[in-house]
What does this fold into?
Amino acid sequence: MDWFLHHPILTGLLAALIFELLTVILRFGFKLTSPTHTRPIAKLTKGFRIHHGYPGAAMLVAVPLIPEPTIISSLVIIIALMLFVSDFIHHAIVLPIFAGHHEFDLKYPES
It folds into this structure.
């Protein structure tokens, strides 16, 4: 466990690949699509879709605000990279190849 926390960038990138694999399994194996299955939160977000890359990007921006390298900063980097990189891979590579469209919609369809 110590190695993972001492190498947060590599750990975050590895976690992103694992998270993306899970996303692909849910999307193509179980036919779950975000616009359909997360639609109930559209009222809370005023129709805007919240991609998991958004909180990842916000966390990456927040990392320099953590005063000194600690276990917390390592965990923030790992989770931030996992979310941001996975969302990027999903919309820039996986969906265009396997679904024919990036599906990076800012709002829910018909919202």
User: Anything to note?
Assistant: The chain has one domain: 2-98. The two ends are 44 Å apart (CA to CA).
